[in-house]
Structure formats: structure tokens, C-alpha cells
């Protein structure tokens, strides 16, 4: 049988120690990767839902609305806030610019913004 291990006890102990150190190093790496994956999963579970509609805000103290975007629009800037469907529609009707990438003004692209979708959506009654 082919045996590539050294014949003397001293070198065999050295190899055993060296491999034990590598196994320990691999075990630490496995534990670190498992912790990272658990943190990522916890972050995915705890992440707030993406808003349906957002308004991009301007620069300055007044930070007036600049554009209306769908909640998943990739082109929306960092200065933004979530808005309801009714507020998004109101801002668009008032003349606020619609994003040219996600096209929130187009009812076929976003049927949730169209008046027909609003009429079909049940609302809570006020008493």
C-alpha cells in the first residue's frame, strides 16, 4: 500500500497539530458564515415593506415635491418619502412631474393608480 506519511513519530505529531489548527480555522470560518447568513435572513424578515408610491423631494429647506415615482423605481433619488395612492394621484393631477422611467401617470403600467382601481378598492366607512 502507498503511504506518503512520514515514518517517525515526531513528524506525525507535527502534521496532526498542523491539521488540527486547519480544522479549527475552518470551523471558525463556518461559524462566521452561519452567523452572517442568519443576520441576513433576520434583516430580510424585518425589512419594512417597499412603499407603493414615493415622491422625490427637492433640495433646500422647503423640500418641495419634484417627481412622483412607483415604489420600486430605480431612478428615484435619496430625498424621498412614501405617499398614498390618493396623494400620488392628487400630485399628478396638480401638475407634478411624473417619472419618465416608471411612468406612474400611465394607467396600463400602474393600474393601482387609475380611478377604476380606486373605485374597486373597498374603503372603511366613516361614521
Summarize it.
The chain has 127 residues and is an alpha+beta fold.
Please characterize this protein's 3D structure.
By secondary structure, the chain is an alpha+beta fold. The chain is built from three helices and four strands; from the N terminus they run H-E-E-E-H-E-H. The protein has a four-stranded mixed beta sheet. The protein is rod-shaped, with a radius of gyration of 29 Å.
DSSP strand content: 5-15%
Overall, the morphology is rod-shaped
Secondary structural class: alpha+beta
Spatial arrangement of strands, main beta sheet: 3-1-2-4
Distance between the termini: 91 Å
Helix count, per DSSP? 3
> Would you tell me the overall average pLDDT?
82
As an assembly, this protein is single chain
Order of helices and strands: HEEEHEH
What is the percent of helical residues? Answer: 40-55%
Alpha carbon gyration radius: 29 Å
Number of strands: 4
Low-pLDDT windows of residues: 120-127
Query: Describe the biggest sheet?
Result: 4 strands, mixed
What is this structure's SSE topology?
Elements: H1 9-46, E1 53-57, E2 65-70, E3 80-83, H2 85-93, E4 97-98, H3 115-120
Task: Based on the model shown, name its key terms.
alpha+beta; four-stranded mixed β-sheet; 3 helices; 4 strands; 42% helix; 13% strand
